[in-house]
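SAMPLE LOG
Freezer: B-3
Tube label: C17
Construct: single chain, 237 aa
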Amino acid sequence: MTSRYAIIVAGGVGSRSGDSLPKQFHRLGDRPMLWWTLKAFHDENPDTRLIVVMHADFIDYWKELAGTDCPPHTLTCGGTTRKDSVAAGLALITDSERGLVAVHDAARPLASSRLISEGWVQAERHGAVIPGVPVSDSLREGTPDSNRSVDRSRYFAVQTPQVFDIALLKDAYRKAEAAKDTVFTDDASVAEWAGNNIHIFEGDPINIKVTYPGDFRIAADILLTPTLNPQPSTLNP
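STRUCTURE (predicted):
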């Protein structure tokens, strides 16, 4: 069976959530958000090896907060940027490993088993894939005083998990080490910069990134409402 890893990036400080506590530690119902995010991958396939990257100052706090029923995972310290944090997670996967690696935001606890599973399938075919949702709003490009309408049918809102062949992503990150002044917004941009084509598969509008105070209520309502919850339950709720 192909090896599968999921790197969960949990290094954010949560400033936009309106609280000094990083948002991945906020409770949705009676569990912290990061617990739900790990559960999503565990429910899809318990054999997926989970790596959580977070700021060193919060590792002991998370160990106390996670609880005894948290899906098994490996913790490692993140860096000053997202690129550095993902590189730290990749460093725990040996260069000889063959398989797939997903990179996912800790603040997306609503990723469904369908979405995660489709990412693995598409990455097997294409090597570097991302979930995307077609933009439904009208778009304008420019500044408040000088702007123009653009064709929204050409745009996608990008989500995670972004899934890659392990060797492809590790090679892309090695190359990106030399690009000190280049800004990478996500892992797809690193892989693309290194010369790889990125395939988009169908994302899920429910798979929101919990960012603002109102998002916490939306995520909790979905997770705790059986008819809305995209996850099956194999762990104690």
